[in-house]
Amino acid sequence: MQHAPPRLELPRVGVVITCHNYRAYVEDAIRSVLAQTYQRWTCVIVDDASTDGSTEHIRQLLRAIGDPRLSLLVRSQNGGQLAAFRDGFAASDAPFLAFLDADDIWLPNFLVAHLSAHLNATRPAALSSSDVYLVDRDRTVLGGTYPMLRKPRSRTDAPGTATTPGKQLGEMASEIAYASEYPITYFGPEAYGWMWAPTSSMVFRRGALEPVLAFPFKSRIGTDYLAATCAHLAAGSLILSECLGLYRLHGASVSAGATYAGGHVQQSPNYRAHEITMGKDVLDYVLADAERLGAINGRHFVPGFLSNHVKKFGDLGNDPRLLPFLDRRSRWRRWRKRLTRAVRGSFGRA
C-alpha cells in the first residue's frame, strides 16, 4: 500500500520594493511581483521620501490593484537605500527576503527559481543571485548577461560547486517544482569578491541578513555590496545562471549612470568615490563579528578574508585592529612597509 508524501508548507518571501523618485518605473516593478508564478509572498513598497509624486502614485496603484499582500510604507525623511532596506526588512517576518529596486523588473519565474535553488538537496546558502538582462529606460535590451556575475562561462571557476534543485521536494510540493536548464553554482564563504548581479537579482535568508542590517554602517548607498558581501560570510552564495529580471541602466541610477559600453557595467563617479567607505564598512563588520564568523567557518577564515580585503582596499591596511589576525610573517612585512614609508617621508621633507 502506497502512502502519499506529507504535505509541506513552503516558505513565504518578504518582497521589499525600494523607491526614491521612480514614479515613471515603479508600476512595472509592482506588476512584476504580482505576475510571479510563486505566490507565497507579501510585498511592502518603501517610498524613501520621494519628491516626484511617487507616493501618491503608488497609493493610487495599490487602491486600483486591491491585493492585500501589497502595502506602502512612506519614510518622512530620505535615509538612502540602506534605511529603506531596514524598514522593509522590519515590516516582514518571512524566512526569505527579496529586494527589488523600483526601476527594475522581475520575470515571472524569479521567485520560484530562487526558492527552488535555496531548497536544493546539496547545500544551503545565505543568499542567491540570478543573471539579468541589461535594458535602458525604455526596456530596450542592451546586454544578455550581467558581466560580473560569477557564473560558468568559458572556464570553470574552481571554488564553485555545481548544485541542482531538489527533485524530491518538487514531487512533494508542486509549487516549488521548477526545472531550469541553466547551471546553479554554490560558492562557499571563503570565496572572496563581488560575484553577484545587483540588488534586484538577490534573495536572502532572513537569518543571514538580520545581523548585517543591524550593523551601524556609515554608507547610504551601495547597499547590495554591503548586504551581499557580509551575508555571504555566514553560509555562502548560490549563483543562478538564468536571466530572471531586467536591470535598468539610466541616468538616474546611482551606481550605473554612464552609457553601457559592454564588459563591466560602468560605475558613476559618485559610486566609485564611495567605494573606500564601503570597504571600511565591511572591515568594521568583520572585525566586530570575528568571533561568530570564526566559530562558523574555522579559525583561519577571518584572517584569510581580511588578507584579501586589504589587498583590494589597500588604504585599509594600516588599521591597527588587523594585527591580531596577521601571522608573524605578515606582521613583519607590514612593519617593514611602514618603516620604509617613514624613511622615504623623512628624506622627502629634508
TrEMBL record:
Keyword Transferase annotated: yes
Pfam family, one: Glycos_transf_2
Keywords for this protein: Transferase
PANTHER family (alphabetical): GLYCOSYLTRANSFERASE, GLYCOSYLTRANSFERASE 2-LIKE DOMAIN-CONTAINING PROTEIN
GO MF annotation terms: transferase activity
Name used for this protein in its record: Glycosyl transferase family 2
InterPro entries, A to Z: Glyco_trans_2-like (IPR001173), Glycosyltransf_2 (IPR050834), Nucleotide-diphossugar_trans (IPR029044)
Sequence ranges assigned to domain Glycosyltransferase 2-like in this UniProt record: 15-145
Family annotation (SUPFAM superfamilies): Nucleotide-diphospho-sugar transferases (SSF53448)
